[in-house]
From TrEMBL:
This is Alpha/beta fold hydrolase. It comes from Amycolatopsis pithecellobii. PANTHER family: EPOXIDE HYDROLASE. Keywords: Hydrolase. The keyword DNA damage does not apply.
Amino acid sequence: MTATPPEGGTDYNWLPEGFTVREVQTNGVRLSAAVGGSGPVLVLLHGWPQTGRAWARVMPTLAENHTVVVPDLRGTGSSERPADGYLKTNQVKDMRGLVEGLGLSGPIVVVGHDIGAMVAFAWAVHRPEDLTAAVVLDCFLPGVDLEDSMNVVKGGSWHFGFFAAPHIPEMLFAGHELEFVQATFGARTTPGTFTDEELEFYARSYTGHDRARGGFEHYRALLEDGRENTAVLEKGKITTPLLLIGGKDSTGDQTIKALAPHAEKLTSYVADTSHFVAEEAPEWFVEKLTDFLANAGAKV
């Protein structure tokens, strides 16, 4: 595993000062990541339909006390788009290999939002020995409450099943990327959170069949993700200190209540935001994260 400068992909004009982009070949995939700061390792995992840019508003502050690693998940941004490997446990292997390939060592704090939160959660469930703490931002979790949230018969969200369907979402997505991003972000965030330039950036990041497919593959793994998590959760509680934040106008306290019986050390908040907590309330998020890490005994 070696870290090299990037060869292309998504542009990095948004990159905060002090960060550079590196690439690592690991676990059968080439991963791109922005890296900056110094201190204990803090890995930030984005959701869909975004890239590592999702963390741009908090990266400079967090880099004051941490070595901040901000990858594009497999299938997204400037990372490679393999045909398979999208199980969240396999993406934990991606992240472990990325950190090693960058020449960094743990213990690690991982923060995830949306799909990235599912990877962070899988890391805490399946490889707790790697982590000082894990943070989950506004996300239904496979094996905890996601399956009920996917069930449209019970009023669940239709998009989980639609995005997981083979071929069809890529076909319908084509040519409508910007419209989709505008509608999705507009419905799930505080008005004015994202600029037109940011929305156009994310639309470009998923334009084209292969870029769209790389995003949807994360959804196609969800049911197996749940089965894998359940198999471990049935054997005992999660020992990794967890911070779980739900947006008031999004997941609220649903996942907090569902996860509580499974976690030994759970800190939780309902933020005065919608889905995009770290972008809608970056200063509040950094404050809560810093407090949590101090109380969890992690280096801050």
